[in-house]
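Summary for the steering committee. The consortium agreed at its last meeting that each partner would contribute one worked example illustrating the joint modelling workflow. Our contribution is presented below. We chose a case with several input lines so that the handling of multiple components could be demonstrated. No manual editing was applied between input and output; the record is shown as generated.
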Amino acid sequence: MNKQELRARMKAYRLSLDSAERKILDRAIADRLIELVSPYDTVLCYVSSEIEVDTRYVLSELFKDSSKKILAPKCVKGTNIMHFYPITGFDDLEEGSFSIYEPKDGISMQTDFSDNSCCIVPALCYDSKGYRVGFGKGFYDRFLAEFSGKKIGICYSGCIVDKIEHDDTDIKADIIITDKGVSYT
Ligand code: ADP
Ligand code: MG
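What follows is the complete predicted structure of the assembly.
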């Protein structure tokens, strides 16, 4: 299956999950993720939209630890580039286009991260080597090409496939967390 077909299939799969079932999967991923990010002093984490694995619970737990730096992404309008901005709570977010919550205007973006950083990488689909299918714009491929911290993919176990085609610009995750467990690629 090519990336286009995988995108369509994985979107349909996610929409087919009922909300109670999905909450259980989200929580299983969140519990593992919270444990796994505990040694990192800086965590780059997207703010989940409807179709993505939930990160709001994870963020609410991370905000409790004031020694941890949390950063959320914001896309530069009209481009395929995103930057990360420090946030300390949900009050630092506002609704942007496509109902995506992003850091409020006025927060300064950060481009240098501590050596002990990790980035939570969303995907519609992962394979066992850590290659991913995103929404097709290459936002994370561009960002991760310059990011030297740990890349932690999160995904429903029902969205893991044997093999995903990839090219030179696709960046793979180092670790994948699903509702079934944690694997190192
Ligand atoms: P996604 O990763 O969102 O699933 P793709 O991997 O299909 O999407 O990438 C989308 C487009 O972005 C492709 O045309 C790809 O070549 C391009 N792209 C990805 N990373 C880079 C990069 N670092 N520099 C330039 N173009 C890139
Ligand atoms: Mg890609």
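Residues 3, 133-138, 141-142, 145, 169-170 surround adenosine-5'-diphosphate (ligand 1) (CB under 6 Å). The chain has a mean pLDDT of 97.
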